[in-house]
Amino acid sequence: MTPSDEFAELEQRGFGRRVGFGRSPALLVVDFLQAFTDPTSALGAAVDDEISAVNRLLDSAHESSVPVFFSSISYSEVDLGDAGVWLRKIGGLAALRANTPEVAQDPRLHVDAGDALIVKKYASCFFGTDLQSRLQFRRIDTLVVAGCSTSGCVRATVVDACQLGLHAIVAREAVADRSGRAHRQSLIDIEMKYGDVRSVEQISTYFAQGDQRISE
């Protein structure tokens, strides 16, 4: 069976339907930290194109008064105990020490003074953080996700967003991974089961609709 035949069969069985956009969005940029965007870093990859795509989304969100959240992974315990067992799996996490350049946002990002920061310890931006309550306070029903890595923190965040009743939207050109194969498979997996993968252009158009947004 070819991949296209496989997808067609899954769609016939009810997979891959659209969750659509809601009426009240927020943009979440996941872990575009200097440790992840520097290709010479153990955790890094070349993400120049994805940074440019994220900046288009950020500009659109800021112009349309869409709330923006950034996330960072940061460990403050001397023995990295707050990284838990995950450190045994990914040794490069040891570089993510609190108050170091490695955990700062990439300086190329168009960060606005009003943007919020979520500091986490693990993959999902919801796990062990107050992101859900912040979204609820703002009555957000649609979470647009960009950043890295597609197969790790982006995917984990999208799965949790779906489980929490949010319209999860992934910005296709604005997510990145160290592995091209993992990136492609994760986008397929998200599209089949957890959220919608949309272009930056489609999302920017949606942001610009403002109070005229209508749930799909």
Fold topology:
Elements: H1 3-12, E1 25-30, H2 34-37, H3 48-63, E2 68-73, H4 86-89, E3 116-120, H5 131-137, E4 142-148, H6 150-163, E5 167-176, H7 180-193, E6 196-198, H8 200-208
Parallel strand pairs: 1-2, 1-4, 2-3, 4-5, 5-6
CATH topology-level name: Rossmann fold
**Bulk shape:** globular
Global structural class: alpha/beta
Report the CATH architecture.
Answer: 3-Layer(aba) Sandwich
- The sequence of SSEs as H and E is HEHHEHEHEHEHEH
The chain-level mean pLDDT equals 93
Total number of beta strands: 6
> Main β-sheet: number of strands, strand sense, barrel status?
6 strands, parallel
Strand proportion: 15-25%
- How many structural units, i.e. domains? 1
CATH class: Alpha Beta
**CATH homologous superfamily heading:** Isochorismatase-like
The helix tally amounts to 8
Termini separation comes to 33 Å
Secondary structure: helix percent: 25-40%
